[in-house]
Structures are given as structure tokens and as C-alpha cells.
Amino acid sequence: MGTNFDDSRLTAIGLFAEAFAGLTNRFAAQFDEHRVSPVEFEVLMRLARSPKNRLRMTDLAGQTSLSTSGVTRVVDRMDRGGLIRREACPSDRRSSYAVITDAGLARLEEILPGHLALVQQWFIGQLEPAQLSQMMDSLRTIRDAVNPCATAGSVSDGVTETAA
């Protein structure tokens, strides 16, 4: 058997997966406290950080881990909950936008202070500024290679918004 189970590539992806899982677990209780799932939080954040607080449904799918049918289900559920609404696209009848509502923005305002405190404690605060900068550059490089749609719809006035 010639497989090298100590391959540094396995270590690299394993460390990334373990760090992500650990952070996700730290955030879960806080999301539950605010009656929002991690996916709903991601959708709210993507919309709040997008031009005019809206994205085409296809762009929202590209920016999240959801399929187009998954985005439709989440948007429908969040629309019923009053956190977002759908708007028809005036230039393409086949397309529609997901738009964050005032209630959705208010929910984010409730969630963000605690979420940012957790991000600071368990992520940003674990790194020196130079380490953080280098890691963010590296993550953008990887993200752009494996998910080129991750910033779809986030361009406003010719300037790309900071995604993720």
C-alpha cells in the first residue's frame, strides 16, 4: 500500500474543515437565539451588503451554498416571515430579485453585535493583523478559483463590493 496518509495536502484541507466546523458550531447557538438559520443569516447578509439591498435570485444562488431551487425555497420561507420580499425584474420577466425588508434589516441589527463579538473572539482575535490580511488574500484567491459566481451581482457603479 503506497498511499501517504500524512500528505500535507490532507492536513491543509483537514485544518480548514475543522476550523470552519468549529466556527460554525460557535455561531449556531447565537443564530438559534435569534430564530434564524445559518443559511437565512447568510442570505440576509448577502442582501444587506448588495447594491440596493437586492440580488437576482440566480446571483443569490451563486453567492451562497444553495442551488437555484434551494434559494427559491429559502426565499419563499423568508418572504412568508417578512424578512425579504421578491421583486420582478423590469428588464427580464423570467428573473426576479430577492430584496431585504426593513424587518430583515432589523433582525440583522439584533443579530450582528453578538455575531461580531463571536467573530472577534474565535476568528479575528486569534490572528495577528498581518496573518489576517494574508489569510483573507489567500481565501479570496481560492474562492475566486472554486466559486467564480461568489460575487455575482455585487458590482455597483463599476466598483466590486467586498463579498463574504
Derived from helix and strand composition plus strand pairing, the structural class reads mainly alpha
For this entry, what is the oligomeric state of its chains? single chain
* Largest beta-sheet characterization: 3 strands, antiparallel
Sum up the overall morphology in one term: globular
- Helix tally equals 6
Q: Please tell me the CATH architecture of the domain at 19-112 by its name.
A: Orthogonal Bundle
Low-confidence stretches: 156-163
CATH superfamily label of the domain at 19-112: Winged helix-like DNA-binding domain superfamily/Winged helix DNA-binding domain
Strand order across the largest sheet: 1-3-2
The CATH C-level class name of the domain at 19-112: Mainly Alpha
Q: In the CATH scheme, what's the topology name of the domain at 19-112?
A: Arc Repressor Mutant, subunit A
**Helix-strand topology string:** HHEHHEEHHEE
| Radius of gyration over all CA atoms, rounded | 18 Å
**Terminal Cα span:** 42 Å
Q: What is the overall pLDDT average?
A: 90
GO biological process, one term: response to stress
InterPro entries: HTH_MarR-typ, MarR/SlyA-like, WH-like_DNA-bd_sf, WH_DNA-bd_sf
GO molecular function: DNA-binding transcription factor activity
Pfam families: MarR (PF01047)
Question: Any overview of this molecule?
Answer:
Residues 6-144 form the HTH marR-type domain. The protein is mainly α and 164 residues long. The protein has a domain at 19-112: Winged helix-like DNA-binding domain superfamily/Winged helix DNA-binding domain (Arc Repressor Mutant, subunit A), CATH 1.10.10.10. The protein contains six helices and five strands, in the order H-H-E-H-H-E-E-H-H-E-E. It has helices at residues 8-33, 38-48, 57-63, 68-80, 102-122, 129-146, and strands at 54-56, 84-88, 96-100, 155-156, 159-160. The strands form two sheets. Strands 1-3-2 form a three-stranded antiparallel sheet. It has a two-stranded antiparallel ribbon with strand order 4-5. Strand 2 and strand 3 (96-100) form a beta hairpin. Helix 1 (8-33) packs across helix 5 (102-122) and helix 3 crosses helix 4. The protein is globular, with a radius of gyration of 18 Å. Mean pLDDT is 90; it is low at 156-163.
